[in-house]
From TrEMBL:
Protein name, UniProt field: Cyclin N-terminal domain-containing protein
Gene3D superfamilies, A to Z: Cyclin-like (1.10.472.10)
InterPro entries per the UniProt record, alphabetical: Cyclin-like_sf, Cyclin_N
Domain Cyclin N-terminal: 2-61
Length: 61
């Protein structure tokens, strides 16, 4: 499941031309969040895109 989410976020990141550090930071955010909160499978994509949005706000601005 993690690999599928990672691949999808990679495609999104590439499509919007984000710097590679944004994807790395999003992965770190997801790992930290998922380590604390139990997330349903249906919500993983939402957590992933939220992490990517936060990472982009931090890195792209």
């Amino acid at each position: 499941m993690w690999a599928i989410l990672w691949d999808w976020l990679s495609v999104v990141s590439h499509k919007f031309k984000f710097v590679p550090r944004s994807l790395q930071l999003a992965c770190d955010f997801m790992r930290r969040y998922l380590g604390v909160v139990d997330v349903a499978r249906e919500r993983l994509q939402l957590v992933g895109i939220g992490a990517l949005c936060l990472a982009c706000k931090h890195e792209e601005v």
